[in-house]
Design brief:
The chain has 558 residues and is of the alpha/beta class. Helix content is 38%, strand content 19%. It binds acetyl coenzyme *A and 3-methyl-2-oxobutanoic acid. Its main location: cytoplasm.
């Protein structure tokens, strides 16, 4: 076959020689330290970077959900960034247990301005970076390894020499060999070690060494190998907080972060819903909820996912995809019949079991836990089946359609969805149900009045009086039987020459309260060779009247 794609332009990424790698056997049982970089890496990727108001709204949301470290900007980049950091400090907007982080290149005037921006903050992380990759050394810096290492060490010295400016403040230092995933491992280690030599971290004030997949270039297992390699080879591991900063160029940022944590990372930098350069930073919402759904405390509050989405969409001016993990508008929704059937059964089973453990097929998370309701769990279109329609009727309209009828009513809905090729709303399903079983505008019979009383002196016999219209003509009928339903059915057969047998009858209330309606379901059978079953529904606040209406409904469908 002709290959139209120029594969010769690309090279396979090298594997890491890591004998006895240990990360595949690890389990994540505690959340890493989270650092939000929404206000910096997220912000620098936006068409319109956040203004002060949007930055402030993002900040408030991040603090509210529990981030203890937030990279608040690149203060030397713009007045907006600088002024925002000053505003946070001067207006006392930083809780005592929250640390702000600021990013700077290794350039004297930028480092100086960065220090000026954080004067007076209680807790600060000064984050220095320079790219160390082979490609950037060659084309951006035009320097050899020694030259680029010098940028890092000179930058580290610029930072160290300004630390007296922040005397009395809690200051932690962070270094990123940017483009780490394009950097030879031994060289990345050498540069990090050199920076560490200058900053002289201690166990109680570790250096944060942040190893970014600035561009995600390999499968996540290779990133994990790189992290484990660094973790094993750092000389003063106890003085290091090992941080990762995955991007998502290959669509595996979340996997890369998770495997990196298994490989020894203590900390993860990322953004809400994965906003960030190109395909984005790693998504902390997905990472956190992945932990949550394994029974691990994510140490972040995602209970108002809609609020977080609104904030992210407002601040980033970018929509969140309807299929976004956990959060997207459609991710808790099943349209297809077999999924709906399984969800319907799963929801009932979970209610019955009352064990407190969430296990519903196709729903990895209880939507309630993130502030969603069950309304959208099942939506109906031409791919749907009876289980889904029954779910909508029961949950939205309190109609517990007996199982044998579900198939019949689903054909009514199937005809509508096939005709429209569109989703049918819960209200439309209800309208179709009412028309088919309850109001029956084209039905032959219409019940105008109904009364029943026990025949005096008899415990069993009931006398009924009913007024009906038969194709518009009013008729009064009376008769007796051993109950209202039995007597009324008998009269219908006798007066109108109908041939049917009562087969089954169920009734339930539609809601609680004194004005609660009852829903009655009647099944009648035609005594011919087909033995067809016909169903009728009656709804009324009077529990005697509801089944009578159900008989009329069934007779109309004969
Ligand atoms: C992967 C990341 O996300 S890294 C963060 C990236 N974020 C941003 O760039 C957003 C904010 N940046 C900015 O606003 C600007 O780039 C500024 C204010 C920092 C610098 O602006 P300028 O100096 O006008 O421009 P510019 O960024 O193009 O400067 C590039 C120069 O800095 C050098 N440089 C780039 N990164 C670094 C670094 N980390 N340390 C030292 N020098 C660096 C380049 O080699 C280049 O040098 P040259 O002029 O000798 O060729
Ligand atoms: C500054 C660094 C950490 C960065 O943003 C990246 O490498 O993506």
């Amino acid at each position: 076959m002709l290959n139209r794609m120029p594969i010769h332009k690309y090279r396979a990424y090298a594997q890491v020689d890591l004998p006895k790698r240990s990360w595949p056997d690890k389990v994540i049982d505690t959340a890493p330290i989270w650092c939000s970089v929404d206000l910096r890496d997220g912000n620098q990727a936006l068409v319109d970077p956040m203004d002060g108001a949007r930055k402030r709204r993002m900040w408030d949301a991040l603090v509210k959900m529990g981030f203890k470290q937030v990279e608040v900007g690149f203060p030397s980049a713009s007045d907006t960034d600088f002024n925002f950091v000053r505003q946070l400090i001067e207006e006392n907007l930083i809780p005592d247990d929250v640390t702000i982080q600021v990013l700077t290149q290794a350039r004297e005037h930028l480092v100086q301005r960065t220090f000026e921006s954080v004067l007076g903050a209680k807790n600060v992380i000064i984050h220095l970076y320079n790219s160390t990759s082979e490609l950037q050394r060659r084309v951006v810096f035009q320097q050899d390894q020694a030259g680029v290492k010098k940028i890092a060490t000179e930058g580290a010295e610029m930072v160290r020499d300004r630390l007296p400016m922040l005397a009395g403040q809690n200051v932690q230092l962070q270094y990123s060999p940017e483009s780490f995933t394009g950097t030879e491992l031994d060289y990345a280690l050498e540069v990090c070690e050199a920076v560490m030599d200058i900053w002289a971290p201690v166990v109680d004030n570790q250096i944060i060494l942040n190893l970014p997949s600035t561009v995600e270039m390999s499968t996540p297992n290779i990133y994990a190998d790189q992290i484990e390699w660094m973790h094993r080879n750092f000389t003063r591991r106890d003085r290091i907080c090992l941080s990762v900063h995955p991007h998502n160029d290959r669509g595996t940022g979340v996997a890369a972060a998770e495997l990196a944590v298994m490989a020894g990372a203590d900390r993860v930098e990322g953004t809400l819903f994965g906003n960030g350069e190109r395909t984005g930073n790693v998504d902390i919402v997905t990472l956190g909820l992945n932990l949550f759904t394994q029974g691990v405390d994510p140490k972040l509050d995602f209970s108002d996912i809609n609020g977080l989405m609104e904030t992210a969409e407002y601040c980033n001016q970018l929509p969140i995809h309807p299929r976004h993990p956990y959060a997207g508008e459609l991710v808790h929704t099943a349209f297809s019949g077999s999924h709906q059937d399984a969800i319907n059964k799963g929801m009932k089973a979970i209610k019955a079991a009352n064990s407190g453990v969430w296990e519903v097929p196709y729903l990895p998370i209880d939507p309630h836990d993130i502030g969603r309701d069950y309304e959208a769990v099942i939506r109906v279109n031409s791919q749907s089946g009876k289980g889904g329609i029954a779910y909508v009727l029961e949950n939205d309209h309190h109609i517990r359609l007996p199982k044998e009828w579900q198939a019949q009513f689903s054909q009514v809905i199937q005809r509508l969805t096939d005709a429209s090729s569109q989703e049918i709303s819960s209200q439309e399903i209800w309208n179709a149900f009412e028309k088919e079983y309850v109001t029956q505008p084209e039905g032959r019979f219409n019940l105008v009045n109904f009364e029943s009383r026990r025949v005096p002196g008899s415990n069993q016999v009931v006398e009924v009086n009913a007024v009906l219209t038969d194709n518009g003509t009013e008729k009064t009928i009376t008769g007796q039987g051993n109950g209202p339903v039995n007597a009324f059915s008998h009269m219908m057969r006798k007066e109108f020459g109908l041939k049917f047998k009562l087969k089954d009858y169920v009734e339930h209330t539609r809601s609680v309260g004194s004005d609660a309606e009852a829903a009655a379901y009647i099944e009648i059978k035609v005594p011919d060779e087909t033995g067809t079953s016909i169903f009728g529904v009656g709804i009324d606040t009077d529990i005697t009247l509801a089944p009578i209406k159900a008989v009329v409904s069934a007779c109309n469908r004969l």
